[in-house]
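User: what does the whole thing look like in 3D?
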Amino acid sequence: MRVDVDEDTGRVRVDTEAFDALVASATGARGPGGPVADLLASGAVDPLLSAVRAPSVRWWVTVAGEEKVRRHEGWATSGVAALRLAVTADEHQLVAVEPQFVPAGLARVVHLGPRKVGARTPRTVPGVTARDLFDADERRRTRALRALEVSFAWSLAVDGDRGRADVTVVDGPLGPFLVTDVGTGSPAVELRPVSPTQLWRSLVDVGWP
Amino acid sequence: MADAREGDVVPGRVEWWPGGVWLAVPDGWEVVVEPEEGVTMTALEPPRRESEEGGPSAAFRANLVLTTVSTGGLGFRDWQKGTDELLPRVLDQYLLLDLERRAVGGHEGGRRLAHHVSPDGVALTMEQWFALVGGTGYTVTATVDTLRYDAVADGLATLADTMALRPVDGHR
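Assistant: Here's the predicted 3D structure for the full assembly of 381 residues, as structure tokens:
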């Protein structure tokens, strides 16, 4: 179990075991032990755990490229949002921010930004599902990303007062596209062009507390 | 506009500025002409009801800022290249989200969307429309606290579409 607190910046990094122990203690599932108990006693994660304990909005972000998949998540309640950012598969950075800063944080995680693209039209790509883009199997994931001619994919799921919302996006030299499974019988996805501005609006408009 | 709610951006008034631009300004917004050197006009939304209870974010008043400058002979690309280099230096936590070439007021122009943080810690979304007319560079900057951006984005775009521009005498 590993816990690392940067005294200068307040940045907290933990491994998966420590993170699970933190969440379990926050939700009362079990009492903490070892370095997690010390971390809790320090108060460094108090704001973060207040959001984890009683979130009004939960979200999960997955970003997948050919080489890696990173799964991040967050909790938000009035006044504070907690983010678990996957630095590696077994190292997590924990951040507490005001909810107003979550959209920008998400934009950075999903590499939202301008793309020089020409006119684009919707297209359907057979033989691929949206799930393939995030598959843990590198070969399957790479095949899906290359079939769509994209560099990476990301998905955002939000569960809050407005219910559940999901969006899947692929991005690359041709710019961002929304991805929807359309296969009936055999797998296929439909790609619909979307602008970074439209994606920013969707990140902002999820009912942050 | 009976359906308009407080905080909505509703094109209501069109003003003529000696600088050479027509621009719709929302009803009820506080307009100041030439508030400082280099700024042609600012329009500030009225204080919001929730600002009495909320923090700096709730107190933030969306605003429009119109600047009219001589580009000193620079072409469109070089004028905007300078802007792209300047903004990250002067705005805290600047994050460019979108940038496109598009006609503005019937002239060569573009649109920029970015996020930054105000000096008192408010997450802001800034949308700019800019155009080069002769030697005059026009920029309209709309700024709103980020969590309200989606609600006002269409209204802001409508305002930008009202712009009509002409070159200013003496600019090259």
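In plain terms: Chain A touches chain B at residues 98-101, 103-104, 107-108, 112-114, 195-197, 200-202, 204-205, 208 (CB under 8 Å). DSSP finds six helices and eleven strands in chain A.
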